[in-house]
Design goal:
Elements (H helix, E strand, L loop, with lengths): L1 H34 L1 H22 L1 H29 L1
Helix pairs in contact: 2-3
């Protein structure tokens, strides 16, 4: 009956190894998901874009005012930097 005990031990060990491999694969998958910064940033950006579009759709006038304001600030900033660079030449 000693042989039967060895077979049971081997079977038990194989099952334990299988379980541990599955657990390790799950852990690696979770870590990979958490550490994949480009993917997470893309998801974050897509969610923010969706929320801004939804807000703009519900509030078109404030969205237009915000767009014009941001555009004006960017335009003035670019103009000021370009003028400073041109004056320094």
């Amino acid at each position: 009956m000693a042989t039967r005990g060895k077979i049971d031990d081997r079977t038990r060990l194989k099952l334990e190894i299988k379980r541990m491999r599955a657990e390790l694969q799950d852990t690696v998958a979770v870590l990979e998901e958490r550490l994949n910064v480009p993917k997470r940033y893309g998801e974050f950006k897509a969610e923010k874009k969706r929320r801004v579009r939804e807000w703009a759709h519900k509030n078109p006038v404030p969205a237009a005012v915000a767009f014009v304001s941001v555009t004006a600030v960017v335009g003035v900033t670019v103009w000021a930097v370009a003028r400073k660079v041109y004056d320094s030449l």
